[in-house]
Write a structure and sequence with these properties.
heterodimer, A: about 80 residues, alpha+beta, Mth169, Chain: A, about 35% helix, elongated, B: about 230 residues, 9-stranded mixed β-sheet, two-stranded antiparallel sheet
Amino acid sequence: MRIKILIRLKKQILEPQGKVIEQSLNNLGFEGLRNIRQGKLIELDLPENINQEEKDNIISSACKKLLVNEIIEEYEVLG
Amino acid sequence: MSFKSAVITFPGSNCDRDAITYLRDLTNNDVLNIWHDETFIPSVDLIILPGGFSFGDYLRSGAMASKSNIIPEVIKHANSGKFLLGICNGFQILSEIGLLKGALIQNNKLKFLGKDCFVKKKHENKFNKLIKKDQVLQIPVAHNEGNFYCSNDDLNYLNDEELIAFEYCMGSFSNSDANINGSINNIAGITNEGKNVLGMMPHPERAYQNFHTSMDGKSIIESLIS
């Protein structure tokens, strides 16, 4: 099963790339696009034949141990 | 008693050789160079995690290196109370391991900074004991992710426990803000609770020979061996 993990900087942390993207879009005439934040998306295949609980455990453990730095980031599992 | 030290090299480290000559010249002793894939470090007084771009800064700066095979030995060394110094990428690795509080995020002005900066000591520890209060050190930085961030609770903890080793300050030719990268409270370097693990963004190993722009980086090793 393929899943996506969306990782982003916590709201209170400055995300300077988003700010610059916002400026560029505004320069291109896209007025009114605000509060742009850039994150990252990780896609992976989970092992076959695991139940929901095992799936949740694998994802949360992989995120805590490597994929996400919870001091500055938060994550969300998409599908 | 001679002071023994080691430098760990990761794929993408680029200040490891500088760190080795820095230690060799200032401790007057051979320095071990250990590859990240090793699983044993002989007993030494100090380990340096050098600067660079370990594992190409994949995922987050220092994230992949913090899971290297050698890291359990580095943690064992630190937990035994011996000295561990992370410089630049080494500081990022120490944060990712969890030996130090907080995290290093992208510089607030989005620029890679490669220039001399000015720091002074805030709280005393064995790494900075020979540096006088309010003495301004000129030491180069070279980083893109040097913006120190931590929660308010952790910041209070760092202050209460006196764990802030270095802070950025104004210097003789600085004409902009002292805070070069957006770090909370101008923090340039912190220690762990035991004050035997130091992480700092400035590169003391690039400021110790007479052809460098400054020799202020000597004071850290001189403090440790004095």
